[in-house]
Design brief:
Blueprint: E1 11-14, H1 18-30, E2 34-37, E3 41-45, H2 49-60, E4 66-69, H3 72-80, E5 90-93, H4 96-104, H5 119-125, E6 134-140, H6 146-154, E7 157-168, H7 173-180, E8 186-189, H8 192-202, E9 210-213, H9 216-224, E10 231-232, H10 238-250
Parallel strand pairs: 1-2, 1-8, 4-5, 4-6, 6-7, 8-9, 9-10
Antiparallel strand pairs: 3-7
Helix pairs in contact: 5-6, 8-9
Length: 253
Amino acid sequence: MTAHRPLTGWRVLVPRGGRWGDQVAALLRAEGAGPVIAPLINFAPSDDPVGLGRALRSLQDGQFEWLVVTSATTVDVLVSQQVVVPESTRIAAVGETTAAALTLAGYRTDFVPQRDNSARGLVTEWPHSDIRGRVLIPQSDLAEPTLVAGLSRVGFRVEWVTAYRTVGVPVDPDVRAEVADGRIGAMLVTSGSVARQIAAQFAPLREEAVVICIGPRTAFDTRAAGLAVTGIADERSAAGMVAALVECVEDGA
């Protein structure tokens, strides 16, 4: 008996490469889809290396009570800079994916929001008993002010620094043509930066194009970029996005 594979015949744009892209591609193939890995964003060194170096030295000297990590790319920066986080400094991760990257790199994680893996969720769920002292937030140059403003508002002394820059990557003309004529019928959106690149490189999308967002905040940014959102993952993960796509396809999106 042949297994039911609901995405058979669908070609799906995967906007990130590397391990994450390979993982999503494998999940899509398991459901019958043909993944098209076409990274739309990449990461470049910080435009303030002096400020970043100064902040990371202060971190290693134990001058911060907390380090807040908002992405796996920030973990890559910590590793490349050979940062050793002292035992006196606790580490918060914005979500399970970031926490997993920290663990893989040999860092511990002391706090991860459970209900909402986002900057807003991290602020909302932060234990009130641990609101004290200085916090360092190394992040993208395009990061929203939600986290810095939220932690400052509840009483932390927050210092943020640009750890890396997010830059757009032009896609291959063949990929652009496949989106334009509908051969690529679905797109996964993992961040506001990806949404803006989809709008810049592919808009206007076909009316029947299926756009799946990794979470509510990304959906908000996607709509702000002028794109219609078809579905939102219940869980902010690769599996959550694929499950949302399957649901939309089975519902006749």
